[in-house]
Structures are given as structure tokens and as C-alpha cells.
Here is the input.
Amino acid sequence: MGKRFVTPKSQSRLIGVADEFLLESPDVRSTQPGGFILHPDSGDRQMSIRRSLGNDALQVASKKVSASKRQSLMMNNGVVLNGEMDLGNGSQEMAYQSRGEKEKKIRELSAELEDTNKKCEAYRANLLAVLKDMEEQKLKLSVKVQNARLSLKE
Here is the structure.
């Protein structure tokens, strides 16, 4: 049959990368070069599955980033309290928290949102790097297959 280049550990790591959006894998690029490709007979199928997983994860990450940006816009236009928008219309009613506590909470949540956006961008960059590495491995594999075909013709 032939050698397999993917061990169960590296295969689960790759799937974990796609499933967890790289949360647990800051060193994705340190995977060995042959780590993404299976035997040439099943390489294309496996590559398309992994590419699909990577693209799906990238789309989910993009949706999360856009949702947080929309939430950020909403926070800039008014304060959300218990699901209702307070547009600062001058009413001085006492709510659950004092104004200072609300402003402190807004600052904390804004900082948390900023950190989350930075993480999302880092995850996106890692996903793109993984996809690029997969494409490079696919090209290398196709060159090897072409060379094997040429040597068989001789």
C-alpha cells in the first residue's frame, strides 16, 4: 500500500485546530511538513476535507468578528441594560447599578471585546497559514505524483 504521513495524533490535532479555532494550538505551524498529507491515493480526498474544515472554521470566525463589531457599534450608540437600549435621553431613574458602576462595567466589557477581537484576528491568521501550508503540501504531492507517472511511462 504505502506509508502514511499522518499519525493519529497529528490528524486529531489538525481536526482539533479546525474545531477549536486554534484556541488550544498556538504552535500550529510547528507541525512537521508531511503532517497534513496522507497516502497519495487518498490525499486529494483528505486534503479537500481538511480544506473544507479550515474554510468552515474561518467562516465561523468571520461571523463572530462581525457580530462583535455590530455589538461594539451598538455599545457606542447607547448603553444596553437588561436587553433594553438606554439612549441617554436624560431620564435620571435609578436602575440596578449606579452610573459609575455601569461605566466601569462598560469599560471592562469593551476591553474584553478588544482582547477577543485580537484573538480572533490571530486565529484567522493561523487558519490562513494552515490553509497555505496545506496548499503547498498539495502542490508538492501533485509534483511527486506527476514524477511517478512519468517514471512509470519510461
Remarks:
- Residues 1-41, 89-94 have pLDDT under 50 and may be disordered.
- The chain has three helices and two strands.
